[in-house]
Each structure stands twice: as C-alpha cells, then as structure tokens.
What we know:
two-stranded antiparallel ribbon
Amino acid sequence: MSKRRNFHKELRRIGKESNRSSIAVYFTLRALVILCMILEFVRGDINNAFLCLLSLILFMLPFFIEHRYKIELPNTLEIIIMLFIFSAEILGEINNFYGMIPYFDTMLHTLNGFLAAGVGFALFDLLNNNVESVNLSPLFLSVIAFCFSMTIGVLWEFFEFGADKYFRTDMQKDRVVDSVSSVLMNEEGKNIAVITDNIKYTIIYSENESGELIETKIDGGYLDIGLIDTMKDLFVNFIGAVCFSAFGYLYIKNREQFGFVNHFIPLKKSK
C-alpha cells in the first residue's frame, strides 16, 4: 500500500511539473479513448475495446518511466509518444486509417525509428556521462542508437508476424502484386527463378466446415501475405534511425548548436 501511495504521489508531482500542453494532450486523448472504448463495448467488439484499454495503459508509460527510473522526459517527447500511441491504436487499427490514408503506416514506422534511436542514444549518452570508466566516441554512440532502433523495429515485426499467425489478424497488411519470381515454378527443379509478369488474377479454392468448396478471385495479381509490408516498415524504420543518429552525432560534437535534440531524448533528473 505504501508503494502505491508513493507512486500516486509521484504522479501528482510529475503532473505539477509537466508543461500544460502535455497535460492538455494527455487528458484530451484519454477522453477520446474512453469514448471510443464505450462505443466499442456497445458494438460488442471486445478486441477493439481491449485495444482502447491497452492505449490507456500505454498513456501512463511516460509517467511510469519518470517515476521508476528517475528520468525526465521532455514535454515534446511526451506529446509525441502519446500522439503516436493514439495514432497507431485508435486511428490506425480501430478506425482503419492504415487502409484509408495512404502512407499513414509508413509515417508512423518512420517516426518510430526516429524515436527509438533517440531512446537508445539517451541511454548510452547517460552511461557515457555518468560512468568514469566508459568513454564512447560520438560515432560509436550514433551507431549504438541506430542498432537499438533497428532492433526495436525487428522485434515489432516479430510481434506482427506472431499476431497474424497465431491470432489470425492482419497486422502485416497484404497487397496485390502482379508479378512473381520463384524457383518453385521451375519444372526441371533447378535453382533458377521462373519470372511471371502481368498476372491478371488468381483464384483461391478452399473448403468450409461442411466441406463445401469456396472460390475466391483476386483481380490484378496474387496476394502477397505481408512480406512487402514488413520490408517497407523496416526500411522506413532504417530511415528514421539514420536521421536521428546523424543528429545525435552532431549533438555530441556541439551540444549548444544542436540543442534541439534535447526535445527528443530522455534526460537524467536533476537533484
């Protein structure tokens, strides 16, 4: 009980110290998510209601990090994190912005690569500045930030693949492709790809529970089941990671001239 009281006391203290803009964003998004969760319950969509609940929990993540690890998150970073969670879960998954708005998913994955690189950079920059035996060069710090971001991106793609495979979701968005290059189509069994272009349509035959044959026609090509989406996500994550790593390198070389980087990286709390 004492730990819980201390945690709530710390949350109130953090709230008082936080910028009014981040508090306004937090309560606005929280109210929108609660409204969305009520609507999903009324519609009987428990999965979407669970996503709303997950979003509310994730909104608390910045406060938990500040309390647990004694780290100060800049207001800009707090706002971006909350908007990112809202955009990914509420707008993207529940309201299908991924399908309705071109490049919406691409923008989020690029931003994720940028932010994850900032987190990785901050962790090792804090280590570099507070441990006497550690003296990492600016280039090495930038490389670590890049690798950290790419690792987060890969783990997320693992999560998407697992959700699609075991829970029958479609987080790895499928798309229709009009050409294929495959050695499986080589009738002689050689390791030479057979290229088929300008595919007009494909037909999928399946059976329902009663054994009835179902025919599904896909116009314009064949259905790619997530590979292109995964590689595109990793590529834009790569771009975001490279961008922040470059800024991180310049920031280490001249902290005053590139001080705007402070708005995107966690900082150690001043005593």
